[in-house]
Amino acid sequence: MRASQFFFNTQKEAPNDAELPSHILMVRAGLIKRLGSGLYSWMPLGLRVLRKVETIVRDEMNKAGALELLMPAVQPRELWDETGRWAVFGPQMLKITDRHSREFCFGPTHEEVITDIARSEVRSYKQLPLNFYQIQTKFRDEIRPRFGVMRAREFMMKDAYSFHTDFASLETTYANMYQAYSNVFNRLGLKFRAVKADTGAIGGDGSHEFHVLADSGEDGLAYCDTSDYAANVELAEALAPNVRGAATEVMRDVETPKQTSCEEVAALLNIGLDRTIKAMALIATLEDGSTQFNLLLIRGDHRMNEIKVNKLDGLHDFRFATEEEVRENLKCPPGFIGPVGVGAHVRVIADRTVAAMSDFVCGANKPKYHLSGVNFGRDLPEPSLVADIRNVVEGDASPDGKGILSLCRGIEVGHIFQLRTKYSEAMNATYLDEASQTQVMEMGCYGIGVSRIVGAAIEQGNDARGIIFPKSMAPFTVTICPIGYDKSEAVSAAANKIYADLNAAGIEALLDDRGERPGVMFAEADLMGIPHRLVIGERGLADGTVEYKGRTDAEAQMVALKNVVEFMQKVAL
Amino acid sequence: MRASQFFFNTQKEAPNDAELPSHILMVRAGLIKRLGSGLYSWMPLGLRVLRKVETIVRDEMNKAGALELLMPAVQPRELWDETGRWAVFGPQMLKITDRHSREFCFGPTHEEVITDIARSEVRSYKQLPLNFYQIQTKFRDEIRPRFGVMRAREFMMKDAYSFHTDFASLETTYANMYQAYSNVFNRLGLKFRAVKADTGAIGGDGSHEFHVLADSGEDGLAYCDTSDYAANVELAEALAPNVRGAATEVMRDVETPKQTSCEEVAALLNIGLDRTIKAMALIATLEDGSTQFNLLLIRGDHRMNEIKVNKLDGLHDFRFATEEEVRENLKCPPGFIGPVGVGAHVRVIADRTVAAMSDFVCGANKPKYHLSGVNFGRDLPEPSLVADIRNVVEGDASPDGKGILSLCRGIEVGHIFQLRTKYSEAMNATYLDEASQTQVMEMGCYGIGVSRIVGAAIEQGNDARGIIFPKSMAPFTVTICPIGYDKSEAVSAAANKIYADLNAAGIEALLDDRGERPGVMFAEADLMGIPHRLVIGERGLADGTVEYKGRTDAEAQMVALKNVVEFMQKVAL
Question: Of A469, B308, B322, B522, which is the most buried if we count CB atoms within 10 A?
């Protein structure tokens, strides 16, 4: 593509509403343009990127045997009433009334439509398994759209749905799709992790999320480098030593006049934070409606995991105790509370790690005092309950016993689910088995946020100059920057020839024939994330060379003019 | 593709709501599946066809230098208020209210959005001309959706919009797009015509429609085989001889006791219908609110063109006179009325052809009588007005003077417009010219009904057995039908090899490996419109041959097994 024939709309200014680098850079590079809240046009440059992602996703879906179709975006309410989701989906669903006052929605997802197709088209077990997918515009009316295309209201999604005679068949397709998703993200050249996920509201059994790794990611992930274990931090199991060390110290009061946090106490005592315990007061509501005072114990350097706590008996809807409730139950203000000497009405819940600690430091339930050398069994009873109630941390043992955990942050770009019979039962999607008996189909569903991937990739790859695209996604592979295209015939002739030769060699080249200054050309190419740059100048041509620089290279290098195609094939393909 | 890995849902029964062959066949062949009124899923087989159309459209747009982008389907009301179209578009526009009670529509077209982009991104004449396009899902809430995808509510459209400094530039791009559209339909292998069109409500000046020719088409078209003249019958100019023949007969009363139509009178008198004149009584409403009685004269074998009549002075909102008005003004009941002896209050408007007639037959304004041998100037005054008020007919002179006209019917699948400044003025889309003066951009817009093309192609190509696709659009190029795939190893081995060889040669083959009976395989392939068929049987293999039949061939032929790829390359590529 010749730049003079293309349309660029790079901007110097970051948009007002942008927080994330990807949002800022996508607008500044002219990949997208805002139409309204959560609504973006994909400009020619951006659409080139989006289509590359789409093409790889489609290709891997086809290779996995999924069949592409295209369902309407507008869906009738009646189908959603069958599964009850019209009522439960809430305001995120964009509802529409047509000229005949019939109700529809702009589809946020397509389980109902595809299940309707399956129940009317599938008669026999012989037709199963089936796996359909589409790549389509979806709409979710987010209450606060933000982050550009990462949380837009209108977005492009690949959604696949599989139908099976039995769970074993679903498991096979599920594994197949897991592999296809891995292939997609590998081909895209993104650092990613598949993690076990909670199935949440969509229902069903097994579920994995695929995350693009980026420091700005909304999700914390834990993974084991020496095994394939990976999970959302929300779910990753935290292990602890099975054996508690013997008590070696005597319990004693420590004066901590102003020290209310574990950090402050550890600093005062000059001990590791991992020898302290913090106590959190939580109120549970019991089945009979009465409330219960809970004291949760977490090691000083750990963090409570609310999702895990939520799953404990009575703590489904827990809340933190008020200062008044703390004083009432422990006769002590917050900051100095602890598990020693509490009454029987207090349920003490220790994290697994805490339960294995000895000689620890905790609040004394006495203003301005902590206790050191505390030991379960000797100084206080064993906890009422020992449970996994903390987030895993870097260095924890992997739950599969095959190594230790590392942490990172990720952006969810894919999610696969074993739906089982949630939708097929509600909508009566059945088939006749070999014995001509009616059976309910098993289902899976598999989503990829196609447009979101572009944003996530930029979160993973950017620097002060702009976007760093992996080669799979770059709008152009190489930009050719002639110095004085409109002034030097030698330069324009050489640039035109290199441009033609590269395209003939299958390398997508952009020829910056606009006659811009080098600084402008270089800055725009770097902003747009073009991986390779060739600079054609009279001086180099006199030596038979052109200048090459990779987007992330520190220094440029000279390449012989006669080898430039060969060179580019080596670095770019 | 192996049929066992694909999904077919052919049906024996035609859908209840289908009238047109294309609608019936698309549902029966399993190309589409109805979700609701005017809402269709494109099933895997149909999507293959749709994508082929889309790919050719995209390729020709790119070749024409248009830049692809993708605008949101959901558009804010505010933009439509700027052009006033929110109010005028009417119930065809699907209106949406989001969770924050802001108003949007599901875009029926994108003039407002693209003009908004142009006005904010284009500053200088140096950036122009620009031509953007997208291929996208649109929604028009038709009051009576029908004909399957031909008049669906949700449909796929290619819409392009160009921006220019001046009209000359618009004309250049317009001509460019005209050529690109011709290329698209030629590559699709469709018989089509581009015709001049009325610009109607979208506004602007020049406009052409592109029609796929089919007997079931909604539009009548006139074209000249010896020149490039073509127009919608609604607009095609009807010429007439300049010179009137001399009077040779004497005017006389003819008794026509029961003959009220030209056909009946001509039969009674044993003369050609082209010697008769029919008179139509129309009421015009004048500017002062008064009404005027008009007698329109059309040759007996011609038909009045209401659009042309509408353009005559005072007849913008004409209506046909009531029987009472006819009796009051002409003292005669309908059926025997004519232009001879009418009072001065009657405006006589003659079609051009009528004005050139002599010795004609017309109503006598006397019950049960007509007049023959009537001549203008001698028996009645020259008409108050001579105008083109009829539809052209087969054999009329072409308005460009380069031949005679033929007629056909067409389905509109493309429309190009010179919008001029209708939108750019309303939305203040300006640029700075060379003298740094602010100027309003000129605009063009160019639409293709991508999904409609599939239906139109089937209207053009079908027979009693099913669809006849042009090779550009067929879901598969050739179907391989092994007789006894699951029984004969020789057959399955040969079929597998031919399948692999054809695919390797770039010929999209479907291997019907389902073990169906030949009759079922043949009938389905014919229904789905697959252009070529190879039958592999043990008997043929023994002779080293396979059977070939083209979709429209009367007879099958035998092809040497060793030449089959070469043969298929010749007939299919």
Answer: A469
